[in-house]
Amino acid sequence: MFHGLRFPVPEKRLMRIVAAAFTAVVAGSALIAGSGPAAAQARARGLLDPPPMDDSPGMRVYAASCAECHSGQRTVRAPGLTTLGAMTPRAVLSSLEGGRMRRHGEDLTADERRAVAEWLTGETLVETRLPSSAFCASAPSEEGVVHWSGWGGGDGETGYADAARAGLTAADLPNLELAWVFGFPDVSQVRSKPAVIDDRIIVGSAYGEVYSIDLESGCVHWVFAGDAAVRGAIAIGDGPDGGQSAFFADFRTNVYAIDATTGGLHWRAVAGTHADHVVTGSVTVHEGRVFVPLSSMEIISAGDPTYECCTSSGGVAAFSSPTGEPLWEFRTVAEEPRHVGENEAGTRLFAPSGAPVWSSPTVDAARGLLYIGTGENYTRPTTGGSDAITALDLETGEARWTFQGREDDAWNMSCLSPRFQNCPAPTGPDHDFGMAPIIVTAEDGSQLLIAGQKSGMVWALDPDAEGELVWARRVGRGSSLGGVHWGLTSDGRRAYVPNVDNPFAIISDPRSGASTQMNSEDPPTPGVYALELAGGEVLWHTPPDPSVCQGRAGCMPFFSAAPTAIDGAVLAGSLDGHLRAFSTEDGSLLWDVDTAREFETVNGVPGRGGALDGPGPVVARGYILVNSGYDLFSQMPGNLLLAYRVRR
């Protein structure tokens, strides 16, 4: 749209924003109790109206620095003006200043970053505060009973809650009511998974705030101010004072231990050892140790053909939970990067690199192991630790064994850009393990380590035989967004697997135009699957309902989020904004609620739901807690945490 236009912006900044999701909401200033983040005034235009072509300073910055990818040859990874316009100015600004787009935001002045954020969204940043009515009048209880902790709830990270823990079963679903809705101020996505301790929840947010919220009423007990987005789950464990602490990491790799009752800081450490290291997953806590997954934004930095790609490695860092002292670090790419050539622009290339750990590590206490899933390499040559499940020694961090689901996968975001000089040749399909592996204990007492891959494959490994393959099942043709994207769940009887098969996320080689998908000619088969545990046979498959998305902008009828299992039902969130419960016996629909609409919130923040993606619902103490809103990948934005309970 803007190609060929000239504006007074330095040449160095011209067309620097790569084909990446501008919608990542990360970093920014944080709240303290009683104060609020920057928020925006009422929109001057409709939510889905694109910004005006008005030759304003913000439009000039966009045309010179963003339009090549966001108005040019876009993919689902680089949302267009309508999607960007549905964001908040704070979300755009924080992405440029401290998030996924920070390397490109560095080439803009502070005024330019603010101008483009305000032009895109049609809003002006103003200061606001949470009203005093949002805060609780009484202190929380201090019994220290943990009802949900971490990504999968502990115990193999299966995402399953039995009747005693959940406080409800499938029989209660028809009698659920909406208890309250909490609105996160000025965000466009909600991806932190709450922990439930006693009568309150603890949950992170897109700008670093960590909230303690009353489970019964939704009022706020306290707010801790972190430095950057808290994307992962909150984990509860023993703290340095003998009481319960909440552990988490922010996007900039800061690791925190805070008092779970008061929100006071116990310690803070830094996990990253590379300039582009970030934390996108969840920490895991076990017997005095905190395990932190490390990924890298070099996957986006590579979009600049003058960037010397790439030198980072994914990994895991372990810390002492009482003190924050570093214990060990594991690199998924053991070999140090070396100069391997130049790209077409003459920029030096380095390898090996990549193999990020996007998700949460899984503790296997019985075997003394820690399991991680990894992503693709960023450059060639590739390594045996990419697109893999690796078992680490809990005590030392040394690798015990590795199972590789896909060999020779090298990819970065330059492969989606017209300036693809840093794209590996040949181009891989970007078939990460984006989920945390789960340890499933079957009814006969046997155990399997099960993980789904973005290729559409589900792998069952023998944890007693160094990850030997027990069975494999393809549930879809896969894509760069899944296949299996965020996770699967199991109640010990079956494995329940959401398959995305996103048709908008098929990777092609930018040089030849050929698809990198191994089975790209196969029809997509999205939906929720039930697999039997002995051999992975498909017991039932429930496809999505595409009619839900008719007339709904940004709506996609795909199951991408991790599911949660309770007795008799599997809860699966969809990119269409619906949370659905399916019978574990036959996949029939038991309950369905649409969250992609406006809601009145208990804390006085304007609230609207959107796509359900990322973590699965938390089910504990008779409540179902679900996030709504996920504007990454051109999906529907939102800013809500909704709490459902059995009608009283």
Describe what you observe in this structure.
The N terminus is likely disordered. It contains eight helices and 41 strands. The radius of gyration is 23 Å and the shape is globular. Helix content is 8%, strand content 30%. The strands form eleven sheets. A five-stranded antiparallel β-sheet has the order 3-6-7-8-9, with no helix packed on it. The longest helix has 12 residues. It is mainly beta and 648 residues long. It has two domains: 117 residues, Cytochrome Bc1 Complex, Chain D, domain 2, CATH 1.10.760; 499 residues, 8 Propeller (Methanol Dehydrogenase, Chain A).
Percentage of residues assigned to helices: under 10%
- In terms of DSSP E residues, the strand content is 25-35%
Number of discrete domains: 2
By DSSP (H or I, 4+ residues per run), the number of helices equals: 8
Distance between the termini: 55 Å
CATH architecture of the largest domain: 8 Propeller
CATH domain topology of the largest domain: Methanol Dehydrogenase, Chain A
Number of strands: 41
